[in-house]
Structure formats: C-alpha cells, structure tokens
Amino acid sequence: MELEALRSIYEGDESFRELSPVSFQYRIGENGDPKAFLIEISWTETYPQTPPIISMNAFFNNTISSAVKQSIVAKLQEAVEVNLGTAMTYTLFEYAKDNKEQFMENHQPVTSTIPISSIISVETPNTAPSSKKKDKKEQLSKAQKRKLADKTDHKGQLPRGWNWVDVVK
C-alpha cells in the first residue's frame, strides 16, 4: 500500500527515484544547490515494525562532510523511532525537506586535495581532421531527381496534402 502511495505522490517529481520496490532515493534541495543532499531509504523484510535502512552514501553527497551526514542520519533515526510501526517513508522525506536548513547549518563543502581531472583521464578525440572534411551531399541519380522534381512545385516544396491518406476510394 505504501509503495502505491509513494508512486502516486511523487509521480512526476524529479527529486524522487525508485531504485527497487523496497529502495527509494529523494534529493532534498535543488540540483545546483550546494546544500542539497540525497537520502536513500531501503525497507527491511519486517518493515514497518523494524526501522528502514537510511543511507547517505550516494555519490551526490560527496561534498558533504561525514559528520554532517551522520548528524542527518541520527536526526532521521529519531523520526523513525517516533513513527515505528507505521508507514514512514513519505514522513521521513518530508521531515528532511522541512528541516533541510537545520540539517545543513554546519555544512562546509568538502573539496578533495586531488583534482578530479587527475583521477579520471578523459581523452578527447582529435577533431581537427574531421572539421576539414566537408559532409558530402547524397548523390541522386537522374531518375531520382526526375521523380523528386515531379513531386515538388517550382519552389521545391511538396504540394499540400501529399501525405494524406485516402479515406474513401
């Protein structure tokens, strides 16, 4: 029941993502916001009698310090204890959205000492020779040109209704 409710509530919401029927992600904050974070909630076998697994280990959260992540998860765990025994995924996502500023008050963006460009080597294809080559036009035979000329008017446009379907013959 909760799965159907989540699907209908978050239908069309780009922040919500269903990873599997028992695992969900929700992005709190806008995409370019430095204080945005991603929460992943996974249901256990005996959910909602047992607490769900709350994780912030997504790549999206790499700029958030581990202390801030732990404090967010701890505050969400407190909300879990209050709602234990009831469907709580929607409640947890909304609680996180409502308290986003409080969660991220101690947030200082973490920057790695190793630049990302040195970790990932990206080879760009050599575009210089391809830019010198001009794209060849498709060569038409005389018969093809003649058929094309018969179909079009003097401006090279197809007549009105050329692709209409005969309804009554």
Please, could you describe this protein's structure?
The chain has 169 residues and is α+β, with helices and mostly antiparallel strands. The chain has helices at residues 2-9, 66-83, 89-98, 100-103, 116-119, 128-132, 142-151, and strands spanning 16-20, 23-28, 37-42, 53-55. The protein has a four-stranded antiparallel sheet, with helices on one face. A hairpin with an 8-residue loop joins strand 2 (23-28) and strand 3. It is elongated. The protein starts with a helix and ends in an 18-residue tail after the last helix. Residues 113-125 have low confidence and may be disordered.
Task: Characterize this entry briefly.
This is RWD domain containing 4. It holds the Pfam family RWD. This protein is an alpha+beta fold.
Task: Please outline the helices and strands.
Elements: H1 2-9, E1 16-20, E2 23-28, E3 37-42, E4 53-55, H2 66-83, H3 89-98, H4 100-103, H5 116-119, H6 128-132, H7 142-151
